[in-house]
C-alpha cells in the first residue's frame, strides 16, 4: 500500500506540487538533510539514501496505522516488521563494512578502537563484538516494538476507560469527558511518537553504517 501510494504521487508529480506531493517532498528533504547528509556526508549519503528514505517512510506509515480508525494497530506492534528492518540495517553495515575493510580489517575496526591500552582489549573485544553482532539490531527491534506496543496499550486503556465511565450509570459518568480528553491527547501524542520512532530508527541505522564504513572511529 505504501509503495502504491508513493508510485501514484510520483506518477502525478508536477512542477508546482500539490498538497500530497509537497508533504512527500518535504519529508524526503528532511530525511536527506537531517539524517543522511549530516551523518554520512553528501557523497556517501547518496549511496545509502534510497535505503534510508524507504526505511523512514515504511516505519512512519506502519506506525501511523495504529492511529487510523479501522486499522488501530501499528504494523510495528508485532515483532516481525521491526526485526526485519533491524536485520536489514545489520546486513547493510556488515556487508559494506567488510567490502571496505575486508573481513579481518572490519572486525578489527569495530572491536579494537585505537588509543586503548592493549590489556583492555581482552575485555573490550568481546563486548564490542557482541554489540556489533547482536546488541545493535536487537536494540533497534526492541525499541521500535516496545514504543508501538506501549502506545497501543495506552490508547486502548483510555478509550476503554472513557466507555466504561460513560456507560457506568453512576456519578462516575461525570469523569468520562476527562478520560476522553486524555484519550484524544494520547492519540495526538502517538502521531508524534510515530514520526519520532521513524526518525530514531533511521538515524541509528545511518550511524551504524557510518561507523562500519568510516576510515577510523
Explained architecture:
This protein has 217 residues and is mainly alpha-helical. The chain has one domain (2-213). 78% of the residues lie in helices and 0% in strands. Helix 6 (121-166) runs antiparallel to helix 7 (176-213). The mean pLDDT is 88. InterPro entries: ATP_synth_F0_asu (IPR000568), ATP_synth_F0_asu_bact/mt (IPR045083), F0_ATP_A_sf (IPR035908). It is a multi-pass membrane protein. Belongs to the ATPase A chain family. This is ATP synthase subunit a. The chain crosses the membrane at residues 48-71, 78-99, 119-138, 150-175, 181-209.
Supply database-style keywords.
217 residues, mainly alpha, 7 helices, ion transport
